[in-house]
Amino acid sequence: xxxxxxxxxxxxxxxxxxxxxxxxxxxxxxxxxxxxxxxxxxxxxxxxxxxxxxxxxxxxxxxxxxxxxxxxxxxxxxxxxxxxxxxxxxxxxxxxxxxxxxxxxxxxxxxxxxxxxxxxxxxxxxxxxxxxxxxxxxxxxxxxxxxxxxxxxxxxxxxxxxxxxxxxxxxxxxxxxxxxxxxxxxxxxxxxxxxxxxxxxxxxxxxxxxxxx
Length: 213
Hints:
213 residues, alpha+beta, two-stranded antiparallel ribbon, elongated
């Protein structure tokens, strides 16, 4: 488990461990690459993996089919309020006015993704009720970053740099022969490395994809 996202130095370490020389890696903008990789990876799975260290409030409209309100991932809830526009805020009490789902999320090291409310609303809701439920807490999927997610983000960053890495390492030359002298830059070896990085990223994305029913 990691307490922060990977950075440019972490990405550089992955590339050098894969066999790219330090001069090639130093010439890469690894900071920007890993930032873009993290943003793209989280966008693809529909969630922010690492929760903010401070509380923030997200607002939702009441559910009109059933009483389950899907919410953005949150690892801890400080308060839930119900405040129709122009009305007085009502603090909802956990265990009385609502339950969090999935059950026992914290024990399972999983984020809270929904509230099961002890009241219901009929469609169409009045405009004064839109965005009337505020959930305050630490939003995100977890307080730490799983090791497989950390590795997947690094692999995604390496894939973003792949064209530059291969160009610098080979100067565009994939093979050369003159008389009895020949050089081959190992196209299959390059492909296996790229495929391994792609597989690592894709498998982790499937494991952590947010599914909203």
